């Protein structure tokens, strides 16, 4: 599935990927979903010119593996992380899997930066370093609900879980426009946040956030010293400023928005309040197992953020349409069940 122009994608034929080393695997995505940033790309706000293969969130079925692969076998359902990592370099061993030194900087699926690795809205995908990359989908977890574990679901957990562990009962502000913020609401409440305020102009998003136990607002003015943790997932500098200026002293702000446009931050206010701001590529592979464990705990409901379940062949017309979190599916049942 190839992004060719604003609001336009199309199928393009490509040679079937082949095993290029004994450490490779070939997988077939069976439940794939657009990341929040894909919506920005499809709207024409990305920083890489088309055409390129799109998609970096999926659960896939393993089709073939190299001779050296021990952690996956044909037929397995696996989560495919968005960034390419070897698992063995100094950065990978330190958990910095989005900064692997065995591949070019920013090597990833879904955009031609750091090499051409293809996209996960594809019939077949080559996965290098399969033992390091692929994470088995635990039994009992729905591939549709976990299609976003490659990035947005696991990222949402990382945005709040470590901070709530260090600050039990913290107050959490979520300023968002898509799935990440809603996942954060669910996770924050499940992990003991005393208060969650979700800010989003979309009424349906706010309704879902309310069902997760969050207070909601269409918009707010800065709440001085109002929150211990803030998560911004809009890609808008004014909304990041709102989050930063609503923090309590020594508060923490996590920015998960892709800021394609420059802007000014309230640096003096941040200095006087002593806040911490992290704007970071997510090292998803290092915390994917913990994210899947949380998903299977019964304390959260990622499936409720899935807005539409659509057939794989509907991708060309349906992907550019504005939807919260559509999942495109095909051939989820194992071969033994299909026969």
What's a concise summary of this model?
Pfam families: ADH_N, ADH_zinc_N. This protein has 339 residues and is an alpha/beta fold.
How does this structure look, described?
With 339 residues, the chain is of the alpha/beta class. The chain has two domains: 2-151 and 283-338, Alpha-Beta Complex (Quinone Oxidoreductase, Chain A, domain 1); 154-279, NAD(P)-binding Rossmann-like Domain (Rossmann fold, 3-Layer(aba) Sandwich). Helix content is 25%, strand content 22%. The chain is built from eleven helices and 16 strands. It has helices spanning 36-42, 90-93, 130-133, 152-166, 179-190, 203-211, 237-244, 267-273, 284-295, 315-318, 335-338, and strands at residues 2-5, 8-10, 25-32, 52-53, 58-65, 77-79, 125-127, 135-136, 171-176, 195-199, 215-217, 227-233, 247-255, 276-279, 308-311, 326-329. The strands form three sheets. Strands 3, 5, 6, 7, 8, 15 and 16 form a seven-stranded mixed sheet that branches. Residues 335-339 have low confidence and may be disordered.
């Amino acid at each position: 599935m190839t992004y060719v122009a604003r609001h336009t994608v199309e199928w393009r034929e490509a040679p079937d990927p082949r095993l290029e080393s004994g450490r490779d695997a070939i997988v077939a995505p069976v439940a794939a979903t657009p990341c929040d940033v894909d919506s920005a790309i499809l709207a024409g706000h990305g920083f890489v010119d088309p055409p390129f293969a799109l998609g970096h969130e999926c659960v896939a079925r393993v089709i073939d593996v190299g001779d050296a692969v021990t952690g996956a076998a044909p037929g397995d359902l696996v989560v495919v992380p968005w960034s390419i990592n070897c698992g063995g370099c100094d950065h990978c061993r330190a958990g910095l899997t989005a900064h692997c030194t065995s591949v070019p900087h920013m090597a990833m699926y879904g955009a031609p930066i750091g090499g051409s690795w293809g996209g996960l809205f594809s019939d077949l995908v080559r996965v290098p370093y399969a033992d390091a990359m692929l994470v088995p989908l635990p039994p009992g977890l729905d591939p549709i609900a976990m299609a976003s574990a490659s990035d947005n679901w696991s990222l949402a957990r990382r945005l709040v879980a470590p901070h709530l562990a260090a600050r039990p009962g913290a107050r959490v502000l979520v300023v968002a426009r898509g799935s990440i913020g809603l996942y954060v609401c669910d996770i924050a409440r499940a992990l003991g946040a005393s208060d969650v305020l979700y800010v989003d102009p979309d009424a349906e998003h706010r309704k879902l956030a309310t069902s997760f136990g969050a207070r909601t607002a269409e918009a707010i003015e800065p709440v001085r010293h109002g929150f211990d943790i803030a998560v911004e997932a809009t890609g808008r500098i004014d909304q990041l400023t709102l989050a930063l200026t609503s923090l309590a002293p020594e508060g923490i702000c996590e920015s998960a928005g892709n800021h394609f446009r420059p802007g000014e931050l309230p640096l003096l206010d941040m200095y006087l309040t002593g806040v911490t701001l992290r704007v970071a590529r997510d090292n998803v592979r290092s915390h994917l197992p913990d994210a899947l464990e949380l998903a299977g705990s019964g304390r959260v409901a990622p499936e409720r953020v899935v807005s539409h379940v659509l057939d794989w062949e509907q991708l060309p017309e349906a992907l550019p349409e504005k939807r919260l979190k559509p999942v495109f599916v095909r051939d989820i049942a194992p071969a033994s069940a299909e026969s």
